[in-house]
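EI: anyone free to look at a 392-residue chain?
SC: sure, send it
EI:
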Amino acid sequence: MPIARTLAALLLVVAASRAATARQVDTPLASATATIRAAERTLVTIDRTDAPLTQVLDDFRKAGVQIQVDWSELALLGVEKDEPVTLMVEKLPATDALAALARVIGEAKERPVLDAAPGLLVLTTADRLEGLRVPAIYDVADILTDPTLLADVADADAPPHAPTRLDATSADATTVEERAKRLVDVLMTQVDPEGWEDVGGSRGRITVEAGRLVVSATPLAHLRLQRLLADLRRESPYAVETSLTIVELPAATAAQLVASSGHDAAALAASVRGASDAKAVWSPRVVTRFEMPATIETTDAARGAWKATLTPTRDRIARVVTLEVDLELTQGADKVAFRGAVAFELEPRPIAIVLPAGSDSAVRRVLLLEVAPQAREAAAADAPERAAKTAP
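SC: here you go
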């Protein structure tokens, strides 16, 4: 019985923990943005000519799109339930189809707008979007501490593990303040340009506090902002995964491959990988943050001591990663060392380096290197740090 009671208690604790987690994740903002994403994935086909507006809206609902229509507000735009509508779309995302519908109803001076609430899309007027505002906080310290990112991205046409602290020790305070202002300008220009309070709107507000964006906006604006921040982060990988492989092969084969590759490091890598008499003797992988060295070390009786220290740096403008390599191989009396810097474009492309000869002149070692940029996980980058519930 004591065991049974203990197990029951544990199950209750687990259930309570899962329920608490669900409550934290299922915020009004998360629910509303999930509704928009679902509508974007829903393809609708509608072929109506001079059909009542309510009938066209029912077509959307039959396709699985939940819509709330603010009829009292739409009436101010001259929209009526039995207004004749012509809409012909085929396999179009529901959000795009609804946007097309909004452009053909009401008076030309102002059209209805589409946004979302938890569990349903909302068709209303721009003036009423203020009532859909939801607050959320986004950690952007990683973006603000990149000295080149905003300068490069802010002028673009199209809209790591991140540090969570931002202070004078991580970047110059004046520079960070300027970057914060630039970031807010970019976001407000790309997301609902006329809706922010700073430009006289009523649909949103952004402030920056200690490396975080404090945003009050509609769910659709939040979703667009999240996607833009994710785009910015993809432009700025925080680390690289390095694949390091030591290959042993006959000295004669190595000489032949070097000659046939024309001393091209990428071509040599492909040739070494395809050589039938090549043997990989050490193949570690490591994720290394920029400017921070990472050391890999293996020691055993048969192999000896193998040690590599890797330090990646990057040039975002040139889109180049430079990997500083400090390699030491010790196997009995045989000692081989290599120190150098290797430049990679920001795309996976292995290169090969023939290491200095060891005591056995019949065998040569080749170092194969490959790097892959690492960005913050999409789930983390695409979601606010914390979303508060909408006030009743």
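EI: The two ends are 47 Å apart (CA to CA).
SC: 👍
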